[in-house]
């Protein structure tokens, strides 16, 4: 352990982490193995993975059949490029399987290595779609505040090959952010989107991009009529609608894709995470027949967009097995049922404590917001304290604290059962009560 901690400090720069804290305290956990909803540290401590690591281990940890299918594919064909129209059977069959799971009019898939690449590709593809139809001015993207769509940026700015620039010029990076509907409702959010469209000029807008449920923003669930109205607004202005299903796809919300809750068909869907449950890096963009047909008819020459691992045969084989497990084990339905159990548990926790405000779930995607009366000041963030208290009790969870938020998020593996949810909520109650006691004792000292 000592050796690994020192090697970690010296050589491993962690993503979305405090480098200073890493250097002071070392790695928070060095995970050795996973089994179901549990992760085990190098020192033998067992933790409930209440976040599916990064919202993505949908089928749970330690699935030997995933390793077996990867080994089988690697022994046969570990890797083959999909550039220049080369192909492979797993990628072809995965594209077909994803089209079968998608809304009826979405039937063509472009593969990437992850969620950031998927959203980046979707933006480039819709701009290219507009360009080849004679509308190069349509290059702006409307998004929602508190949305998260990845961190890929800048790499193409260093590429000095003109053909890659022609598909999506670097000047076409205009984005506008409208108000999300979580606190203000459908009509005011729609008015904000319309305002942003009119402000930049409707003739310049290519697409509207949004998560069905904003995950990193704090599990923000829109009203029941929201996306139907968004679809109407997009159609009114001739704007494409991109649904970012990187977190919500492949069963997480109790539907195969989150947008199904609103009975709406987008023009494109981006995906990653749950497509392989994190067992192999993979993502992609699913596009409508209409867009695909335009690309087939008018996109002459080479489509200068792609990644080394686009159509990776081993990734595709792992994804096919992952989807098979989701379907054969009924994990979409289990997410729906256990999400209802999780909500019951969160409501019970709220009634037993003093600092819990709103609680919500949609499938196995949930959140708990914290109050700052009567025992905690407004500027004190409670969610990180609860995360630490949970950590002590063997639960891995995540806090969202930007832009004034104070939210605890939940996203356990879709295999979780009723007893495990009871254990999770019991530990959550204990953790919140311990934070309340700590706050009370601090107040007494003042």
Descriptive tags:
7-stranded mixed sheet, 4-stranded mixed sheet, globular, 15 strands, alpha/beta, Aspartate Aminotransferase, domain 2, 446 residues
Fold topology:
Blueprint: H1 2-11, H2 19-25, E1 31-35, E2 38-41, E3 46-49, H3 52-55, H4 64-77, H5 89-101, E4 106-112, H6 115-132, E5 140-144, H7 162-167, E6 175-178, H8 181-200, E7 205-210, H9 226-237, E8 240-244, E9 268-271, E10 283-288, H10 289-298, H11 313-328, H12 331-352, E11 356-361, E12 366-370, H13 383-392, E13 395-396, E14 398-400, E15 407-410, H14 418-445
Parallel strand pairs: 3-13, 5-6, 5-7, 7-8, 8-9
Antiparallel strand pairs: 1-2, 2-3, 4-10, 9-10, 11-12, 12-15, 14-15
Helix pairs in contact: 4-11, 5-11, 8-9, 12-14, 13-14
Q: What would you say this structure looks like, in words?
A:
By secondary structure, the chain is α/β, with parallel strands linked by helices. The chain folds into 2 domains: 36-59 and 330-445, Aspartate Aminotransferase, domain 1 (Alpha-Beta Complex), CATH 3.90.1150.10; 65-328, Type I PLP-dependent aspartate aminotransferase-like (Major domain) (Aspartate Aminotransferase, domain 2). Helix content is 43%, strand content 16%. It starts with a helix and ends with a helix. Mean pLDDT is 93; it is low at 155-161.
Give a brief outline of the structure.
The protein has 446 residues and is of the alpha/beta class. Helix content is 43%, strand content 16%.
User: What average pLDDT do the residues reach?
Assistant: 93
Globally, the shape reads globular
N-to-C terminal Cα separation, in Å?
Answer: 41 Å
For the largest beta sheet, what order do the strands appear in spatially?
4-10-9-8-7-5-6
Q: Which structural class best describes the helix and strand composition?
A: alpha/beta
* Alpha-carbon Rg, integer: 23 Å
What is the oligomeric state here?
single chain
Approximately how much helix is present in the residues? 40-55%
CATH topology type of the largest domain: Aspartate Aminotransferase, domain 2
**Biggest β-sheet strands, sense, barrel:** 7 strands, mixed
Estimated share of beta-strand residues: 15-25%
**β-strand number:** 15
Low-pLDDT windows of residues: 155-161
């Amino acid at each position: 352990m000592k050796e690994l901690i020192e090697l970690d400090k010296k050589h491993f720069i962690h993503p979305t982490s405090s480098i200073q804290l890493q250097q002071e305290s070392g790695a928070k956990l060095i995970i050795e193995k996973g089994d179901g909803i549990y992760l085990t540290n190098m020192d033998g401590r067992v933790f409930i993975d209440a976040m599916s690591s990064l919202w993505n281990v949908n089928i749970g940890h330690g699935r030997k059949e995933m390793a077996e299918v990867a080994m089988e594919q690697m022994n046969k064909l570990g890797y083959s490029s999909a550039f220049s129209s080369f192909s492979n059977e797993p990628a072809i069959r995965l594209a077909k399987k994803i089209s079968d799971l998608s809304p009826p009019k979405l039937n063509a898939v472009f593969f990437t290595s992850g969620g950031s690449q998927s959203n980046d590709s979707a933006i480039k593809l819709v701009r290219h779609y507009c360009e080849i139809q004679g509308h190069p001015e349509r290059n702006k993207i409307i998004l929602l505040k508190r949305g998260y769509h990845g961190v890929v940026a800048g790499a193409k700015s260093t590429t000095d090959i003109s053909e890659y620039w022609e598909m999506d010029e670097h000047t076409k990076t205009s984005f506008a952010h409208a108000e999300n509907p979580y606190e203000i409702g459908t009509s005011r959010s729609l008015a904000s989107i319309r305002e942003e469209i009119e402000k930049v000029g409707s003739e310049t807008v290519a697409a509207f991009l949004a998560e069905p449920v904003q995950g990193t923003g704090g599990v923000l669930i829109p009203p029941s009529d929201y996306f139907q109205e968004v679809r109407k607004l997009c159609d009114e202005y001739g704007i494409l609608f991109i649904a970012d299903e990187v977190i919500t796809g492949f069963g997480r919300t109790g539907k195969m894709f989150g947008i199904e809750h609103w009975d709406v068909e987008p023009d494109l869907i981006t995906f990653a995470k749950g497509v392989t449950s994190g067992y192999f890096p993979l993502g992609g963009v699913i596009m409508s027949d209409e867009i695909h047909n335009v690309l087939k008819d008018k996109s002459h020459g080479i489509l200068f967009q792609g990644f080394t691992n686009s159509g990776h045969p081993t990734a595709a084989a792992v994804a096919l097995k992952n989807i098979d497990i989701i379907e054969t084990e009924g994990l979409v339905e289990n997410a729906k049922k256990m999400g209802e159990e999780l909500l019951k548990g969160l409501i019970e926790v709220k009634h037993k404590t003093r600092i819990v405000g709103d609680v919500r779930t949609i499938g196995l995607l949930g959140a708990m917001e914290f109050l700052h009366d009567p025992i905690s000041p407004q500027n004190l963030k409670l969610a990180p304290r609860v995360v630490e208290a949970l950590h002590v009790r063997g639960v891995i969870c995540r806090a969202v604290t930007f832009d004034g938020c104070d939210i605890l998020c939940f996203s356990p593996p879709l295999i979780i059962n009723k007893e495990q949810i009871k254990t999770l909520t019991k530990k959550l109650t204990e953790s919140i009560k311990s934070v309340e006691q700590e706050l009370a004792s601090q107040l007494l000292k003042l």
